[in-house]
Design a protein that fits this description.
Elements (H helix, E strand, L loop, with lengths): L2 H21 L7 H22 L7 H23 L6
Helix pairs in contact: 1-2, 1-3, 2-3
Length: 88
């Protein structure tokens, strides 16, 4: 994966994080910024895994779909882990 692909996944991840927040509304610990960061991480992970199993290269819309799925999964995990914590 080249640097151009990584930058592309970061941009797509920002979009995917916003879509994940739209699809899974709620009071997230950390707010919207954390959701965008999770979207970027989800895009990188989703893109890497999709390319490993041969699902990469499907175009812009396919990339958004893969990234959004990765972001939703990471958002759900984040809510499960960080949701029970309280601020001191």
């Amino acid at each position: 994966m080249g640097i151009g692909a990584i930058i592309g996944w970061i941009i797509i991840g920002g979009i995917a994080g916003a879509l994940a927040k739209f699809i899974m509304p709620g009071d997230d610990p950390g707010g919207f910024v954390i959701t965008i960061i999770l979207g970027i991480a989800g895009a990188l992970v989703g893109g890497f895994l999709a390319s490993l199993i041969g699902l990469g290269g499907g175009g812009f819309i396919w990339s958004i779909i893969i990234a959004t799925i990765g972001a939703i999964i990471l958002l759900a995990i984040y809510r499960a882990v960080a949701g029970g914590r309280t601020a001191r």
